[in-house]
Structures are given as C-alpha cells and as structure tokens.
Amino acid sequence: MFKRRTKEKILLMLAVFWLSGFSSHAAQEDNVLEKYNEYQKRLSSIEWDYQINENGFQTIGGQTFPISTRKFGEVSLILALETTYSRLVLFLADDDGSIVWKTDGLETNNRITGQLEQPVSGMSAVAFQDLDGDSLMDIILITSCVNSTGAYAGKTYKVGDVLFQNDTGFFRDYRISEKINRFGMNKSVECIAAFVRDGYSTEFLYTASTKKELLEHGFSISEDQHYARQFEKLGHLDVVAGTYSMADFSTFMIYLVNDSGYIVWSFQPMGEYDNLYALKGINCRDIDGDGMKDIIVLASYSYAGVNNELLTQSDYSIYYQRTGGFVTDTEVKAHVKCHEEDTLSALIERARAYWGWRVEE
C-alpha cells in the first residue's frame, strides 16, 4: 500500500510539473503573439511618411531614394528600423508623402527563426538594377547584423536580399535570398548581381564532390600550397588550397582530396571577411599534442569598413584532426591574438605553447 501511494504521489507531482510547464510555455506564446500583433498594428497604421517615426520606426539617415515603378510611378524608397525589435522595413511614398507600399518580409528579418526581435544593426548597401531582364529596376539590399548571443555574438555579418519589381509592386524569391547568404554571395552589390543577373555562383565550392568538379567550375589552385600529407585517421590526402573569383572578390577554400580525386573534407577559413588579400601559409602538424596532424592557416583578408573603405586584416584558423574528421578551434583563438607582422611559424609556436609544448630552440 505504501509503495502504491508513493507511486501515485510521484505521478501526480509529474502531472502537476508538466501542466505548469505547459501553462508557462502557453503564456510565453501568448506574450509573443501579443507583441507581434502590437507591432503589426503599428506598422499597418502608417499611411503617411511623417507617421513612420511616430510609430516606433526610425528612418535611416541618408537611406531615402527616388525610384521609378510601374505600379506607383515616381516614388521615394524609405528605409526604416523598428526601434524595439530591430526589424528593417521598406516604405514607398509618393510626392504627397502617402505610403503606397510597405514590407518587412525581408531576409534580414528572419535571422533568428520564430523570434520577433532581430539582429539588424544598419545598412551596408542599397542599389537599383534590372536583375531579371524585364526593364524594371529591382532593389538590392545588404544589411549589417550583430547577434547578441551564440557562437558569433558581437561579430558583424552581412545579409543580402533582392526585391524584384513587377506589375503589383515588389516581391522576394526566398530561394534566391537563401542561396545568396548560405553560399557567401552577400559581400557586395556586385556579387549579388553576378549571381542573380549573370548566373555566376559560389555554390559549387560547398557542394562539389571531386577535385575535377572544382576545376571545371573555375576554382584556381594555389600551387605553392598544394601537397600531399598522411593524416593518421583519414589516410593519404592531397591538401588543395585555392580561390574562386566572382565580381572581383576571391573566396578562399581548402580541400582534402583522396587518391581517387574525391573531396573528403573542406574548410572555409575566411569567415565573414569579404575577400582573400594574401595567403601567408598553410601547415599540417600536431598543434594540440594528441599525436595527430592538425591544419593551421594564416592569411590576410580584406573587407569594407563602416564608411565602405577597404581594410585588411591578418587572421588565422586551426582545425584539429579527430577520428571522424576535423573540428574548428575556438579556444586558442580566444587567447592567442594575431598581429599583422605575424609569420606562420611564429603563430604555430605560440599555438603549440598554449597546449603545453616546449618552445623549440
């Protein structure tokens, strides 16, 4: 009897716990829905350009452009950032200031899935080009975003988007926007135009299965960094480093290729940098002291500053060999900083010292 009552109590406690959790989750969903409805109500109420700032949307200074449209004629494109949830909104206003069209259905407003608040911090570029050959000006947008949490917290990254003009206004093809950002073609207006209008793409860099396929699509191998190594867990592999150029931007990749020509692993050391400026070296040796060869890469990259000025920066990446492949280092990078004057050998020495290796004489 005692055991039976104890079991009943436990089941009752679990039921109460589950219901309380369900109730809390439901309350959170109701709160999010309430906030979303309030946000949409403010957005829907904007009928004149002077009402934008009055309803919690801050027009972005210097980001108002005259544009010719088939549906609305000559209008002004106004870019605004919602101040509470950091969402980008586009407005079209006629000569009288009447809002004739608006949207927040943008790629940059979907960085954090299922969340109203987004990490949009500002505009990187806005351009107008006919991208689909219908003689109508389409809109290219590149925003700057900064996540507040997660692995990339505090790091600025770009999000590209395209709005195509048609007879009813503008529309967005999410499949195009998704590829622009998934395959790093969001670095510049020129890159986006080269992909959407001209058909060039970096997608093959991430989907190719053989070295032959890379070369057929225009991948250029850096011959001075092309050599064979014996990796303890993966066997005899060619280290194939090189670039693919698109709209004057070079995407840097490293591949490990087996004796049959198949790619068994790939690395993209560039991160959010725009372009490979100079490759300073690649080395395969044990960094963390586990007896297996790792890969360390040092390069100089270029990127656009806040005023679109060209900047360069040296940076490095370490990839540790494991049983199933490689993992990217985060620990050493948090403690061993890279300087412009650093050489690969000096960087290797400091990285190995971090893991307890005795400094080589």
Describe how the helices and strands are arranged.
Layout: H1 2-44, H2 51-54, E1 57-69, E2 73-82, E3 88-93, E4 99-103, E5 120-129, E6 138-146, E7 156-166, E8 169-171, H3 174-182, H4 189-196, H5 204-207, H6 211-216, E9 220-221, E10 227-231, E11 235-246, E12 249-257, E13 263-267, E14 275-285, E15 294-304, E16 310-322, E17 325-328, H7 331-335, H8 344-354
Antiparallel strand pairs: 1-2, 2-3, 3-4, 5-6, 6-7, 7-8, 9-11, 10-11, 11-12, 12-13, 14-15, 15-16, 16-17
Give a brief outline of the structure.
It is built from 8 helices and 17 strands. It has 361 residues and is an alpha+beta fold. The strands form 4 sheets. Strands 9, 10, 11, 12 and 13 form a 5-stranded antiparallel β-sheet that branches. A 4-stranded antiparallel β-sheet has the order 1-2-3-4. Strands 5-6-7-8 form a 4-stranded antiparallel β-sheet, covered by helices on one side.
What does this entry look like structurally?
The protein is an alpha+beta fold. Helix content is 25%, strand content 39%. It has 8 helices and 17 strands. Strands 9, 10, 11, 12 and 13 form a 5-stranded antiparallel beta sheet that branches. It has a 4-stranded antiparallel beta sheet with strand order 1-2-3-4. A 4-stranded antiparallel beta sheet has the order 5-6-7-8, covered by helices on one side. Strand 7 and strand 8 form a beta hairpin. It is globular. The N and C termini lie far apart (76 Å). The mean pLDDT is 92.
